[in-house]
């Protein structure tokens, strides 16, 4: 009968498939205390520490000691400093182009602790100028503020242009800057006679209707037609009705609406000998005369609530507008268009001649 421990081992090993092999004792490598000591492994240094270190060095503010060392090795500033310390001046024939900005200020140059100064401003050597611009623009302030700060502390030839270039090259500043100022508008030439150039535009929809607006550039005389459709055919029909009363103009200005740029409308313009001018895309100010009248008309018709009263209100508004002196011409549109004033209900206030 085997020992109980051997029986337990035999019972435990019966659940495994194994093969027993003989191995010499000299080939055994059982672990001991000394074999567990760490091996001398060489680890590669991470590059992040070096990058972090040099970034911190580069971002340090420039000090007077750095300016002193850079001035000493700068070929231009070292020569200028020598001239300032000796109190000598060069003849015009001996002054190179690089020394001209300094020689023109030679009476205001001085030295202090190995640094060259123009008045109270430290002259920065060329090797430190780019880093100084980075430090100056660290707060992402604009050109004006950067120049104001620089004028209180440092200087070098062409500083203002370098600051402007640095501000324009900053992608972050360009992404959040305000929109550029709009270019000045070029006014239309004032026509010499009425109905020479007209401006056309659509207004609406208002109370389910669209309005075709036609304004004369000379007299500011307006014509408004209520339209249920804004197709090219309907637009041509309304314009033909207006032309039969007031004549055919020489020029017609409109936007790039589909009815105005259609082939049918183009053929109508050519058949009547009218020069069609379209406004610049996304620039409604080109057709500003019609656009401004549309705003005035909309403001006057906002009080109309019933569709049946739109035509009545529109006629009343047109009579008042044509009778009133225009802000630009100082004369009423009716007088410039027809050579006479329109008679209104206010004329009843005037006493009649006996």
Automatic annotation (TrEMBL):
Residues 190-341 form the Integrase catalytic domain. PROSITE patterns: INTEGRASE. GO terms for molecular function: nucleic acid binding. GO terms for biological process: DNA integration. This is Gypsy retrotransposon integrase-like protein 1. It comes from the Eukaryota. Gene3D superfamilies: 1.10.340.70, Ribonuclease H-like superfamily/Ribonuclease H (3.30.420.10).
């Amino acid at each position: 009968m085997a020992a109980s421990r051997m029986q337990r081992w035999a019972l435990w090993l019966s659940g495994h498939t194994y093969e027993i092999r003989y191995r010499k004792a000299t080939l055994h490598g059982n672990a001991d205390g000394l074999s567990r000591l760490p091996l001398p492994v060489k680890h590669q240094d991470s590059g992040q520490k070096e990058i972090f270190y040099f970034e911190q060095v580069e971002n340090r503010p420039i000090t007077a000691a750095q300016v002193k060392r850079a001035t000493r090795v700068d070929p231009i500033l070292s020569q200028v400093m020598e001239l300032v310390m000796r109190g000598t001046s060069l003849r015009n024939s001996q002054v190179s182009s690089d020394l001209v900005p300094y020689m023109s200020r030679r009476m205001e140059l001085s030295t202090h602790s190995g640094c060259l100064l123009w008045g109270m401003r430290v002259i920065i050597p060329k090797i430190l100028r780019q880093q100084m611009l980075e430090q100056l623009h660290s707060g992402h302030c604009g050109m004006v503020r950067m120049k104001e700060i620089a004028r209180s502390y440092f200087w070098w030839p062409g500083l203002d242009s370098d600051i402007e270039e640095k501000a324009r090259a900053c992608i972050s500043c360009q992404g959040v800057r305000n929109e550029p100022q709009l270019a000045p508008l070029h006014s239309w030439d004032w026509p010499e006679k009425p109905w020479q150039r007209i401006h056309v535009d659509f207004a609406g929809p208002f109370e389910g209707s669209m309005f075709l607006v036609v304004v004369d550039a000379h007299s500011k005389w307006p014509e408004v037609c209520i339209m249920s459709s804004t197709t090219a055919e309907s637009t041509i029909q309304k314009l033909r009705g207006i032309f039969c009363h007031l004549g055919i103009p020489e020029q017609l200005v409109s936007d790039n609406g589909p009815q105005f740029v259609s082939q049918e409308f183009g053929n109508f313009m050519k058949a009547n000998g009218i020069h069609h001018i379209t406004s610049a895309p996304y620039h409604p100010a080109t057709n500003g005369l019609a656009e401004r009248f549309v705003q005035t008309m909309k403001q006057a018709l906002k009080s109309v609530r019933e569709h049946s009263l739109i035509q009545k209100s529109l006629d009343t508004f047109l009579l008042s507008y044509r009778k009133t002196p225009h802000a630009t011409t100082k004369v009423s549109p009716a007088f410039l268009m027809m050579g006479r004033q329109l008679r209104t209900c206010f004329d009843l206030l005037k006493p009649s001649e006996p």
